[in-house]
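ping. complex inputs:
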Amino acid sequence: QEKVQQSPESLIVPEGAMSSLNCTFSNSASQSIWWYQQHPGKGPEALISIFSNGNKKEGRLTVYLNRASLHVSLHIRDSQPSDSAVYLCAVISSGSWQLIFGSGTQLTVMP
Amino acid sequence: ETAVFQTPNYHVTQVGNEVSFNCKQTLGHDTMYWYKQDSKKLLKIMFSYNNKQLIVNETVPRRFSPQSSDKAHLNLRIKSVEPEDSAVYLCASSQWTGQDTQYFGPGTRLLVL
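pong. complex structure:
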């Protein structure tokens, strides 16, 4: 069974700073890796996904994937208080094509 | 704009009762899912349903069963709830399985006393 681990569990940054979140997965043959954002009382919302080694940028978000080290990171430039939420990393299992989630990073951006 | 709708928002019940949660998606997607989210925010897939093909996570107890009337609806029934069933149940949909974006509903919070 694919495993996904996230760090840190909790991250507090000041407004305007860069937020950096990490995720490791257990199978280099995993398909896409996804980042979801979840606000309290809401369902997760997909932010960005990556399949190939390297980086992908969308607005203030940048994702880096290194399949050899089984590591993916999400960086949020110019963090805003509205970015405060739980960020979930998820990988598509190569066997079942199902999303396997990590337990999340709670990001708090202080005004 | 919410495109995956879940009812109820919150449900309190007692051990041994039967409960049913509803999910409807208006995105025209072909695949729907049920997830369980525990108190530590860990999401685990329970079921996925596509073109009348059901894929069940082998760890899901038999008292859980999905029910679908058409591709826009996938309900979840729990036959005889137990305390460990207390969690948030999230419904999602995607165009196909695999690489497509999954869209989640707001969840149903279940508390079993």
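Chain B is about 0% helix and 55% strand.
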